[in-house]
Amino acid sequence: MGDKKRILIAEDHTILREGLRMLLSSNPNLTVVGEAEDGLAAVRNTENLKPDLILMDLSMPRMNGMGAIQEIKRHHPETRILVLTVHKTEEYILAALKAGADGYVLKDATHSELMLAIECVLSGKSYLSPGISEKVIEGYLEGRRTLKPSTAWETLTQREREILKMVAEGYRNKDIADCLCISAKTVEKHRANLMRKLDLHSASALTAFAVEKGLTTR
């Protein structure tokens, strides 16, 4: 791959970040230039460190991986993003690809598979873990599947999901507004939309729903 490629690790579990750093450091073609423990840090570090590739977890505090992918691709479309996650449902895979991810690998992958995925994505190709069903891959790549919201969850926008996650993590409206660089009134509007769409009418109900959907472990 020529000169060393710059890698940013976005993962909220410290022990996983350390393990990934050790694995990647063993490859003479790669250098880890930074780490991020949440989506906001991933966006900021991309701006500052200019990585060639980001290993992106999807379930992280504050801004989640989906939101980070969208934000990074909006400002740095040349940055390659490889999702590394435990989520293997069709919903997550299609959402990540739609957000702009260049590859999708499951966390139960072997070292050699991860390195292959990194090499493929850095070379401009896409990579999808063999653990993902062929039906999902073919349906997405061939454009044969039209996603139609069929549940209340599927009607939520990416911003509404980000705010749902932060509400469940105990952030106040002002804190959410500051983190997402939007006004408190906008947060209140999104929060009202969340409650209306989900037919949930308290912070505790929103939190329980977020936990059920795997947005937070709280």
SSE layout:
Blueprint: E1 5-10, H1 14-25, E2 30-36, H2 39-49, E3 53-56, H3 65-75, E4 80-85, H4 90-99, E5 103-106, H5 111-122, E6 127-128, H6 134-141, H7 158-168, H8 173-180, H9 184-198, H10 203-212
Parallel strand pairs: 1-2, 1-3, 3-4, 4-5, 5-6
Please characterize this protein's 3D structure.
- The chain has a six-stranded parallel sheet with strand order 2-1-3-4-5-6, sandwiched between helices.
- Helices cover 50% and strands 13% of the residues.
- It has 218 residues and is of the alpha/beta class.
- It is built from ten helices and six strands.
- The longest helix has 15 residues, at 184-198.
- The protein folds into two domains: 5-141, 3-Layer(aba) Sandwich (Rossmann fold), CATH 3.40.50.2300; 153-212, Arc Repressor Mutant, subunit A (Orthogonal Bundle).
